[in-house]
Every structure is written in structure tokens, then in C-alpha cells.
Amino acid sequence: MKHMSKYFAGLLLLSMATSCSLKKDPYSALPDSNILNDETKWPAATAGNYALLKEENFTRNYFQMGEFPSDDVALSGATTDPLFYSYTYGHLTNQGNTLQIWRMGYKAVNGANKLLAVMPEGKSAAINEMIGENLFIRAFVHFGLVRSFGRPYTQSPETNPGIPVITKFDINALPARNTVKEVYGQIVADLKKGTSLMDNSNTNSYATKSAAMALLARVYLYMGKNDSARIYADSVITSGNYSLVSTSDLPGYYTKSNENNKETIFAIHHTLQDDRTWGSIGSMYYMSPGGMGYGEIYASQSYLDLLHKHPEDVRNKFVQAVYTTDDNGNKVLATRNGVPKWYILKYSNQDNVPTLSSPVVLRLAEMYLIRAEANAKLGNNTAAIADVNIIRQRAGLIGTALFTPTDLKGYASVLDVVLDERRLELAFETHRVFDLFRNNRNVYRNYPGVQTNPQTVSYTDARVVHFIPQQEILLDPNLVQNPIQ
Q1: Residue 6 and residue 103: Cα distance in Å, rounded?
Q2: What is the CA radius of gyration of the chain?
Q3: How far apart, in whole angstroms, are the C-alpha atoms of residue 229 and residue 68?
Q4: Tens-place pLDDT, residues 452-473
């Protein structure tokens, strides 16, 4: 039974409460058969699958492995944390964070698979809803994994290996890697099915019809299916279920619980009892006045140069300069190993707890920018610029800070305008590096940090993806490793 560790289902970590609350403690005493054969326990089983997404091994690595390879952040020194290798592109075959997200991700996938195998579609609206939620969980995990372990869809998806597509629980299975195209095909199928089964009665801590449509919009954008991306993004925007927070409220967006935010479409909900303290996402980005957090990864000079073009942009509040006093008593910007200290605040101070946050996966602003990018690629420049300006106006920008189709402020194309607006609005939310590579653009770093400067990582480089964990290849000889170079 050596394969149990790879694809072990989440059902053994399930909460046996009668509601779908993520706040319930997990209970592992009942065998799977007692759960699967009793539909009164299916809501708790579904809650258990959400709880697996919330586990540090998934959430922390999803947000760090998706952000640290970008040019928006600067690592200020060597660290024993495997995030070092994600940042520097010095990937290892036995890298700890890749093994953690792989195993926890497939636990969630197979937790969903076990329920999907027994829940009868059409029996009731409540069961249909749970089927849709588990399809969303399965799609979200497959998407998160294929982004990190498979090459961008724009690069030969028919032949490039992605990850194993797992739709049935089989403890003895030794799955091979499906192609990138096959993985995306399953993600789309799951999300489309989910939209047909779910409504929007859940809070944004859980999957909903709109959340599935929002993720479909992102997936289609990654696939280069711009018309479909535009249609799904537009459906979410015009649904009336969400609204952009006001300019005055934007700086405090991430200090509130996600369920108190009408812009958030889906987030991984954390309460005080879920606070990871030193193991939290925000602990690497921020150190509180009381000394909680490492505060060793900062906003990059490249990102700050773009942000500081408009000091009136309220998104400046998502970073915080750290000052010290020099030998002459002057206030100066603090540094660590020569890297200017600019804390990143999107994962800190929820409910005034320094390391607590409910990481946002999908929000309405992204839908506007998906629609903008899709329209730019379809030649609908006026519509693309209009959506960019909606986001800029919400950030407090007016007048000459706004674009027109005939005044791109020095940018070469409308697509360039959109991609920089995505960089500003969605910074540190695991978009930037994927935006570059899927658009056949390089990561270029020429700013203080632990990397060798200047550093260019081409979108064609083998390093744009992480290695499949070597421990998994030893257990499953059908898994093929990503190229070393």
C-alpha cells in the first residue's frame, strides 16, 4: 500500500458536523464506507475537502510557488525554506514545497472523487450543489498544479506533459502525466458541469455558480480562448452578485474577512483558530511592530517603479516602507542585505492579527482585467481601455492618469497597457509570472535581491516549471520528470 501517501483521499480528515463550516474541527474516527453510504454525512465530507485546501501544505505553497518566481518580489537573503528555490529558479527534484502541494492537492482531488462517485445527480438540489462544489475543488486543484508543473498552454499543449488527471479514486493506480491540453480539458469540463449544478446561495468561502464561471474565465484566458474568457468574465461582472469596493475601502480590502467583502468571489477562509503564525503566507512579507513574522521578501524595485508613477494611487497602501535612523540621526529607508525593505500587506492583519489572512483566489477586479485582456487580443481596443480605466478610477486615478485608445501614455500596444494594469491591481496574488510566460514574455530582474543580477528567465526556459517531486516518481514509475535544461 505504498501508494496511499500519494493519492490518499481527504475523507479521513473530514468534519462530522452537520453544516459545511470550515470552522469545525476535523474528525477521523469513521471509516470511509460509513461516510460514503450515509448522505447525511456528505455535507461534512464536502467541508472536509475544503479544509484540505486550507491546509498549510496546499494554501501556503499555492500562493508562494505562484508568486515568488515573479519580478514583483525581492528575496533579501538565503533561507532554508524551499521557497528559495522557487524564487531563484534553482529548482530541485526533492524540493520540499513541491512535494507538499502535490500530495495535499491530490488528497483534496480524491476526497472530491470519492464523493462524486456516490452522489446521485438530480436527486435533490442540495446534492446537486455538493456535486458542483466537489467538481470545483477538483478543477481548482488540477489548475493550481498544472500551472506549476506543466508548461503554459500556449506552448504545444498537445505534447507537453502536464500532471495526472485523477477523476476516480484508485489506491493501486500508477497514473502517467496527461498532456497539458488534456488537463485543461478536464478542468473546463468539471467547471462547466459545476456551473450547471450550483446556484449562488453559498458565501464566498465556498464554490458557487459564479465562482466556477470566474475560474472558467481565467482558465480560458490561459488557454488563449479569448472569446470564451470574455464571455465568462462578462457574465460574472453583469450578474450583480459582486461589486468593486470603494476607493476609500480598497486599502483595507485584505484586513477584512472575505465574507465581509462584496468584491471577493472565492477565498480560502481563515479564522483566528486557523492562524499559521510563523508558517503563514504573510509571515515572509511582513513583520509586525511586535516582531511577528520574518519580513524577508519585499516588493521589488521594478514593481515599485511602476506603482510610484502615481503617488495618488491608493494601491500604494498595499506596500509599506520600513524606515530606520542613520548615524547622523536622519530617517532613511531600511535595508536587509542591501535590499530596500518594502513590506507587502495583502496577507496580513485580518481582524488586526499580524499573520492572519483569508487568501483571495478570485475577485471581481480580475474579471474586469480578464475581459480587458481578451478584448485587447480580439482587437476591441476601446472596450479593453474602458475596463482598464474602471480599475484605475477605483484606485483613485483621474484625468491624465487614464488611458484612451489614442493615448496609451507611451505603451506600444493596448495589451501592454492591460498587462501592466494586471501587474498593479493583482500584485502578489499569484498572477504576474503566469501572465508573462503565457504571453511569451520573459521574467527580467535587475534590482536588489538574492538572485544574480541581471537575471532573465525566458518563457521557453526549462525552469519556468517546477520538477515533479522525485519521491513521487520513485513510487510511480509512470511519472516522467520535467527536463533539467
Answers
A1: 5
A2: 22
A3: 26
A4: 999 999 999 999 999 999 999 9
Q: How far apart are CA 311 and CA 307, in angstroms?
A: 8
Asked if 10 and 108 touch (Cβ cutoff 8 Å), the reply is: yes
Indicate the residue type of 302: S
Amino acid 140 reads F
**Domains in the chain: ranges and CATH:** 4-241+464-475 (1.25.40.390), 271-345 (no CATH), 366-461 (1.25.40.900)
- Whole-number Å distance between alpha carbons of 420 and 414: 10
Q: Which amino acid is at 266?
A: F
**Please, which residues have CB within 8 angstroms of residue 170's CB and are 6 or more apart in sequence?**
7
Task: Scan for cell 468571489, then name that residue.
Answer: 265
The rounded Cα 137 to chain-centroid distance in angstroms is: 13
Please list, in sequence order, all residues whose beta carbon lies within 8 angstroms of the beta carbon of residue 173, skipping any fewer than 6 positions away: 3, 7, 166
State if pTM tops 0.85. Answer: yes
Residue 154: exposed, middle, or buried by beta-carbon count in 10 A (0-12, 13-18, 19+)? middle
Contacts of 360 (CB under 8 A, 6+ apart): 254, 258, 264, 266, 267, 429
- Dist. CA 306–CA 263, nearest whole Å: 24
DSSP states along 37-83: T-GGGHHHHHHHHHHHHHSHHHHHHHHHHTTTTSSSEEE-S--SSTH
CA 273 to chain centre: 22
What pLDDT digit, counting tens, does each position of 408-437 carry? 999 999 999 999 999 999 999 999 999 999
Predicted local distance difference test score (pLDDT) of residue 31: 58
Mean pLDDT of 31-55: 91
CA–CA separation, 470 and 92 (whole Å): 9
Peptide bond into 454 cis (omega under 30): yes
- Beta bridge partners of residue 298, listed in sequence order: 74
Burial classification of residue 432, based on how many CB atoms lie within 10 Å of its CB (0-12 exposed, 13-18 middle, 19 or more buried): buried
Contact 340, 113 (CB under 8 A): no
